[in-house]
Amino acid sequence: MTTRDAGFLYLERPHSPLHIGCLAVLEEPLPLGALARHIETRMPRMRRYAQRAVGVPLDAGHPTWEDDPGFDVRRHLHAWALPSPGGEAELAEAVGHLLTLPLDRGRPLWDMHLLEGFHGGCVVLQRVHHCMVDGMAGAQLLEVLLDATPDTPNVVGRVEPPPVPLSGGSERLASALGSFVSGGLRSGVGALTALARPAAARANLERLRSAAFAALHLATDEVPELPWNGPIGPERRLAFTRIPMQGVRHIRSRLGGTVNDVVLSIVAGGLHRQLVSVGMSLRGVELTTMVPVSLRSADEAASLGNRISAMLIPLAVDLESEIARYAATCAITDRLKARADWVGIDALLALLDGLPPALVAGVGKRLRIGRLANLITTNVPGPRETRWLCGRRVEGLRPLVPIVDGIGLGIAIFSYDGWLEIGINADAARVPDLEKLQRGIESAFASLLASA
User: Fold this and answer.
1) Closest among 17, 121, 107 to 390, alpha carbons compared
2) Which of 127, 234, 343, 413 has the fewest CB atoms found within 10 Å of its own CB?
3) Each residue of 234-262: pLDDT tens digit?
4) How far apart are CA 334 and CA 324, in angstroms?
5) pTM value?
6) 292 within some domain
7) What's the CATH code of the domain at 307?
8) Which runs of E-coded beta strand occur in 174-246?
9) Residue 127 domain-assigned (yes or no)
10) Could you give the angle at the alpha carbon of 95 between the alpha carbons of 93 and 289, nearest 5°?
11) What is the C-alpha separation between 81 and 184, in angstroms, rounded?
């Protein structure tokens, strides 16, 4: 694993598992056996799904991906019946419970839950650990699992378990030590090269210092404390909604900006409405959201793992007018992109790559993330056209982002088939009125659209 991938394992806590969730809403029921056979045919294109994360003794290296000798797709599939009447409330409660369950570290770090009885159809909840994928990689995996037509044949052969056992602890330890030594040698060669070109070395060092300073400045800015900014518990509350892409395109055509600007503006509008409803004065209040930034090149589009940094973006929650809020949002994002503020956080993350894995693991397992931001907001592009699973039409793809201590609210947005699907994940005790935020986001979008 890379340092960034392994970091999601080190930072995981029993009460805050770090897996990404996605709900595929199907218009018809789906037998569990049919789902299992479908996944088996796609396994040759999803090799990582048959590999487990294996630790290195003494944390001398980051965990490695190794084929699971006992791999069986059916060990990762589960079926449940939603209680009557099988509506949105029952779905949110069931998924909220499943989201808190840790993935089995002794197996490949994913599973699927077939939730039967949802509006006459069913829902497939997929959970994948963040150490395996980021949002963009997760979208690529969905494209492997889903079909562009309802009658796509499954012609790829089933993957068989590897005949060789997992490598032993001593072998993994020796390999990790060898990798660290070779990495040190490469660093030494780089240092000698830098001595031959001192001007370039000074320029690179100055850029690194500037980037690190920018990241530290962002991370240490005062962030107001909101009800969900504190230690979180083991229970979750979820809410889902969607907005039409046609309306988003209309807003952009009339007011300029990007899809992400629309997302951030209506999230800010939803938060404004929710906080005002509980009596909070927002005069001069500036919330901050952490927004992942993809660093994937075109060549890396289909690769797994994490190629992300993050930006800390202020949200204009204090404004009353949606038009004014949108204008402020566009100005904020334009300024941050011009300064490339994500580079600072990326530079700090890159510094970890040169540290001994045992040190990174020790710090990560003890680190309290704290409150770098008030909430997390992700926006990942998905399929523009309808997709199918086992011949069933996928009516919606609802995303979920994990939450952590200090940041007990996460909003994930995923574009699919003419909609922006929005999944809201919060600590149940800290945000008992999550439906107010859902309705607030819907109201903010309607108001912005009407005003554009």
Assistant:
1) 121
2) 234
3) 999 999 999 999 999 999 999 999 999 99
4) 15
5) 0.85
6) yes
7) 3.30.559.30
8) 236-244
9) no
10) 100
11) 54
